[in-house]
């Protein structure tokens, strides 16, 4: 990993911006102990990682991975002491390539692996890539802005009404998917849809007049659908899950935090199938949710669901 200094804008990636959800529960279900090896496959702002390093001191080791190459680089300022001590290793990469990343770092087997599938506070608040309708930004939405994948604006530029309707209905579970899709196709005949404000106005105008005051709810679903499609999030999760299980030592723990039903359904089905095959022991019969106190302190915790399993010995 490069030791280059991060862009000053990335100084926002710190404890004030990134509040890790279900932190005590993550440590408990990972069974963090000194001298063991852990992976945070979505290290983001380092909130969970810092706690895992503290709980595994003095000689536990953590590999942190993130798809956005900016985030691991920015963590040098926050966790530089652990990096210098060799307790924290960082890798930029998509967790869909988890086995390849772990092999390159010679970091298997591991005693615990965490994936936090929520959208980073950095991406919402600071990235400038159009992840939210709350500020006017270019409609990019790529977690890795250096890749050549289509942006959100690209995905809105050519598909017909039926394709856009399926996108918003499937990935956003949006009730007015068809109306919004028709409005997008009509709008782009006159001008491209390039910014988050462009898209928000189209969504607002698509809704029945009596519910336009609730446009933000529908915008959130459409923006979610675009983000999932741009980054192939569900495909990445499906590819990552068997690799995560294979990376665990016997008795190793896997913990996943999901924020919407599509991801949670993938994790739930995978773990149940692996339990039936005798490969894991489920540690959570039902998803673990944040307490009311945590939700009051961090509203983004309200939709978080944690599921955990232990790899069966032998």
Helix proportion range: 40-55%
Strand content: 5-15%
Main sheet summary: 7 strands, mixed
Class from helix and strand fractions:
alpha/beta
The name of the CATH architecture of the largest domain is: 3-Layer(aba) Sandwich
Q: Low-confidence stretches at least 5 residues in length (pLDDT < 50)?
A: 1-17
> What name is given to the CATH topology of the largest domain?
Rossmann fold
Number of domains: 2
CATH superfamily of the largest domain: Vaccinia Virus protein VP39
Mean pLDDT: 90
* Number of alpha- plus pi-helical segments: 14
Number of strands: 7
Question: Would you give an account of this structure?
Answer:
- The chain is an alpha/beta fold and 314 residues long.
- The protein has 2 domains: 8-123 and 233-311, Vaccinia Virus protein VP39 (Rossmann fold); 132-231, DNA polymerase, domain 1 (Orthogonal Bundle).
- 44% of the residues lie in helices and 14% in strands.
- It contains 14 helices and 7 strands.
- It has helices at residues 23-30, 47-55, 70-74, 76-84, 98-104, 121-125, 152-157, 161-172, 177-188, 196-206, 215-231, 233-247, 261-276, 292-297; strands spanning 37-40, 61-66, 88-92, 110-116, 248-258, 280-282, 305-311.
- A 7-stranded mixed sheet has the order 3-2-1-4-5-7-6, sandwiched between helices.
- Helix 8 crosses helix 11 (215-231), helix 9 (177-188) packs across helix 10 and helix 12 runs parallel beside helix 13 (261-276).
- The relative contact order is 0.13.
Keywords:
single chain; about 325 residues; alpha/beta; Rossmann fold; DNA polymerase, domain 1; 2 domains; seven-stranded mixed beta sheet; 14 helices; 7 strands; about 45% helix; about 15% strand; disordered N terminus
